[in-house]
Amino acid sequence: TKEGIHMKQQTLYLLENRKCFGTASFGSYWEKNSVSRNTSFSCKNESGESVQIQSRITAYWPDGSVKWAAHAGDSRKIGNKIEITAMEEAAVHTDSIVVEENGSGLKIIAGSTSVLVSPTDTVLFESLYAGERLAAKSAKLVLLLEERTSEEDVLVTKTVPYTGLIQETKVVDNGPVRCVVQFKGTHQCKKTGALKIPFSLFMEITKDSSEINFTHTFFYDGDETKDFLKGIGVTFDVPVEGEMVNRHVKFAADHGFFHESLAMLLSWRPRVPIETYQAQINGEKLTLDPVKDAAAIETAGQIPVWGEYALVQDSSAHFGIRKKISNPDCCFLDCLHGNQAKGAMAFGGVNGSFCIVKRDFWQKGPATLQVKGADCDVAQASLWFYSPEAEAYDFRHYATTGYSQSYYEGFDEMGATPYGIANTSTFSILADDKIIPSDVLLNEFIDAVQKPAVYVSSPEYYHKHRAFGYWSLPKTDTDAEKWLEEQMNNLIEFYKKEIDVRNWYGLFNYGDFMHTYDKTRHSWRYDMGGYAWQNTELVPTLWLWYAFLRSQREDIFSLAEAMSRHCSEVDTYHFGPYQGIGSRHNVRHWGCSCKEARIAMAGHHRFYYYLTGDFRLADLFDEVKDGDFATLNIDPLRFFFDKETMVYPTHARSGPDWSSFCSNWMTRWERFNDQEYKEYIKIGIEDLKKMPLQLISGSDFEYDPENKHLRYIGERATGGTHLQICMGAEQTWIELTDLLEDEEWNKMLADFGHFYLLPHDVQLEKSNGLINDRTFTYPFMAAGIIAYGAAYYKDHELGKQIWEELHTCLEREVGDSCFTSKDIYDAGNKEILHEMAGISTNVASQWCLNVICALEFIREDLW
What we know:
- The protein is an alpha+beta fold.
- Helix content is 26%, strand content 30%.
- The strands form eight sheets. It has a 16-stranded antiparallel sheet with strand order 20-19-24-25-28-17-16-15-14-13-18-27-26-21-22-23, with helices on one face.
- Strand 37 and strand 38 form a beta hairpin.
- The chain is globular and about 105 Å long.
């Protein structure tokens, strides 16, 4: 308490292997009823110095107190450890960034940095000033679509340019640290005026910093048979001044930097002193004396000037840098080839330099960094998220029918539509006063973009206060605990390596894992319908995020971050008839005819949102909150029931459909303390309370999105009872126990878990024969909720039974007694392939997730 004001404090730590450079965006989690919504936040670094932060509330407890807050601050001042203080008084900022709105657009004055956001509908901003220097004149979004026609067996391709058309501009956050502006719009064809490929762009301007961060999302609304993606990106107009010998270009390669002047003072005749040439290559400004430096001046007028450079990452294993003079009739020269470029480009002149860095540059290729007109007064710097140098991206399906019987695809009907999917990229720009940034500065900037500073509380803090529900901390006090932790660590290490071994890279693939392995071909079943990409099936997202929470390992955070970014965009429909749901696992991420809520549910990505305050995910949660209405367009059980005999308009299984709706509604409820969405959850729970077997009933129900009611239609679980629980229902429902404080709901969960492993004859007896021949399949996938039931009823025999199942199921599920890899020689394009022959991501994610949960409830029952 300070002067009668209630205060709460917590300690946050810089995520391991991350560095302090640039603006950090991070979250803080607060105990229920400890911090009121009228709260201001402050922080002190390890030295006890106060550091300015900007805060906003991102989630509330049911009583209206603060659950999560998001903060932004200068990581260089914050350091490796900070103390966050929540003080019960409203924050009043007298030093917020100035935003002036007038007929000239928005003028944002952020200390020494100012940006004029253009009223022009094709320009993001008209000027960016770093101090007194005009660092960039404008920025535009660009799109290239390839159109294909066939004329007498001759394929004719045409590249059609589009320009970003801004339709909405708004400030979404502003304070003493940064101003965040969101642009929304679409791309317009320069020739026809056609509108295609909508976009959303967040621009984060930090006070007294020339670094600006961007989060760019594009949405596919084209016709996949006609609109092939040839290129999409952003271009900046950048003033460049000075003689050509004082203009430079630099790219980050695999090792070190590729650095040249546009006019290099190296010649056969006249010979320039090596000291002059070395100074130039060092990035020093050259002031040439007419007498002393006559040879350099003569040479400068007789050598080619390289006005255009490009780094093209054409695959995850190769990039090339090339250059040319600005004459369009002249060719490119190859400069350097390598493997994995770091996604950074800088160029400049005597007036300073301009840098661009893209996160996951080679991982999400093909991508290009390019500068044109570097020898002119204004150069064009372009970042292509999808490179025009690559073959145009083809959104079409791999077949014209489904293969439901042979390849585990949903149905034989075609449902492979990319209409409504999205893709998100993040990048940053930086203005520097030097002719070209130093290697040290550029490396720091690269680190800040590729691995930004994130601050987190300890695993013990999150665990004690039940952040994201019920999960366990790792312990190795017994042989059983050591064995369980070893298996989970083995799987993390295996999948980390598989990403590279199997090349799980590319703009539309990076972040996802594959589904099932083919030990005969020594490869994953990349070409077999439902066995290819995972698409959140059996929630590997939750596995990775809980694995991070209990370990604080940065490598696991990066895996989970990439998966959340991919799955929330590519696997999810953001508009159209399927808005709010996603595509089940398939060869193409959007290929399966099963479009279901479980794929797109908010629960997959709440972790990333609350830990980082990511603005794009806030929009995603708004897109999925009413995803239950999509079932009116595509009933998940449409082939199993007669539409004409139905009372309600569609169906929802209690899990994974209604449970996923609950995940969306819970997220909406906590983000805004929105009581309407809380009531949606309670309506379904009250319906389940009235069922003959309560939560055990069903799990198939009729459903009405308008009133959120479930209608009992008998005991049938299409696809198996395990589907009721294994798609995130367990984690969502158990977390709701602390939010709803409904003892009958808690008991329903415990009864479901307690019932699951009973012998079938006992289940028949307890259900008065209602369940008939319905079986409770894959008990290891329900181990967490069974453990909840065992703990609720203090049933230690059931607890031991669960551990026996988790211990022995591996032999049955993966053909081995543990998760270990074996060396195979000259297979899978590897000299030595470390193979888990029986692996599937279904088993890996569910086994780990249920072990993590069961350890929290029944650790004392371990063998």
